């Protein structure tokens, strides 16, 4: 954990005014814990979540300009990966009342970093993050679950530390890492896992009465992967420049495995007498 997150966990920062752009299941999941901690949440989204927000005690804005004028200290972007550029380009940044900390929580990191640095006002700060958990894995709390972050452009250190405290105070493992390193590692882990799960789904793999423990884990990978939208899977491929190489590596590995099996089959069909 960096010194910033360590110092933030030693004291209780004041409640934050956090605006959220995009209020799908993942943003709702994060918002509930933020509200539990006493933070004030405002939301805007393409879909109408006014009734849900009323039930949760959250202000919902249909108008993006009014949302920005509501004086948020932090604006968290939780759109889909594929819609990020369109959403950010549509934000009327001139409506902001103050220099604001923008935080993205997308599953890829270089893409939102590049888009936000290119479009948002220079006086705004940027924190790129990836909570490596979700509504299912985090349903019993966030203790020991990994929270990756990159302080891309931070001048208001206390505000950034207060936001990071949301996660460190819940017991997350705070991992500071560059966006590039995150995407390189995520292509090997997250994208590869989703790809295997999607392949198993295409094969219509289902449990059998004689499942081994290994096969049960494969079925779990398939089931967890297809719970996420195909848009997410597509975004992991399209907007992580390391994912294409992983796809190639998977294809090459499959071909090598097939070749080895074919060679062994030929050996057994036409055995060669060993010389001793």
TrEMBL record:
Q: Which GO terms describe its molecular function?
A: arogenate dehydrogenase (NADP+) activity; NAD+ binding; prephenate dehydrogenase (NAD+) activity; prephenate dehydrogenase (NADP+) activity
A Pfam family reported for this protein in Swiss-Prot or TrEMBL = TYRAAT1_C
An example GO BP is: tyrosine biosynthetic process
Q: Would you say which domain of life the source belongs to?
A: Eukaryota
Name the UniProt key words of this record, in alphabetical order: Coiled coil, Oxidoreductase
Q: Which SUPFAM superfamilies match?
A: NAD(P)-binding Rossmann-fold domains (SSF51735)
Mind telling me which Gene3D superfamilies this protein's record contains?
Answer: NAD(P)-binding Rossmann-like Domain (3.40.50.720)
Keyword field contains Coiled coil: yes
> What does the record list as coiled-coil region(s)?
240-267
Provide the Prephenate/arogenate dehydrogenase domain boundaries: 16-276
| Family matches, as InterPro entries | NAD(P)-bd_dom_sf, PDH_N, Prephen_DH, TYRAAT1/2, TYRAAT2_C
Spell out the PANTHER family in the cross-references: AROGENATE DEHYDROGENASE 1, CHLOROPLASTIC-LIKE, AROGENATE DEHYDROGENASE-RELATED
The entry's protein name is Prephenate/arogenate dehydrogenase domain-containing protein
């Amino acid at each position: 954990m960096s010194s910033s997150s360590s110092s933030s966990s030693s004291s209780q920062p004041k409640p934050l005014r956090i605006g959220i752009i995009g209020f799908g299941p993942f943003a709702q999941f994060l918002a509930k814990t933020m509200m539990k901690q006493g933070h004030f949440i405002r939301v805007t989204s393409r879909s109408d979540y006014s009734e849900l927000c009323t039930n949760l005690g959250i202000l919902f804005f249909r108008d993006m300009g009014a949302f920005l004028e509501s004086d948020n200290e932090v604006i968290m972007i939780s759109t889909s990966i594929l819609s990020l550029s369109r959403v950010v380009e549509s934000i009327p940044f001139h409506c902001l009342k103050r220099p604001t900390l923008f935080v993205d929580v997308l599953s890829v990191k270089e893409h939102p970093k590049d888009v936000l640095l290119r479009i948002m006002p220079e006086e705004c700060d940027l924190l790129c993050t990836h909570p490596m958990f979700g509504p299912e894995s985090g349903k019993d709390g966030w203790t020991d679950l990994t929270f990756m972050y990159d302080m891309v452009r931070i001048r208001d250190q206390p505000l950034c530390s207060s936001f990071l405290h949301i996660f460190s105070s819940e017991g997350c493992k705070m991992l500071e890492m560059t966006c590039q390193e995150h995407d390189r590692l995520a292509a090997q882990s997250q994208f590869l896992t989703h790809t295997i799960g999607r392949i198993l789904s295409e094969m219509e793999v289902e449990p059998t009465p004689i499942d081994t423990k290994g096969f049960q884990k494969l079925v779990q990978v398939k089931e967890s992967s297809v719970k996420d939208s195909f848009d997410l899977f597509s975004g992991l491929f399209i907007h992580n420049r390391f994912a294409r190489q992983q796809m190639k590596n998977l294809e090459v590995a499959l071909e090598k495995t097939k070749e080895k099996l074919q060679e062994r089959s030929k050996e057994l069909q036409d055995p060669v007498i060993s010389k001793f």
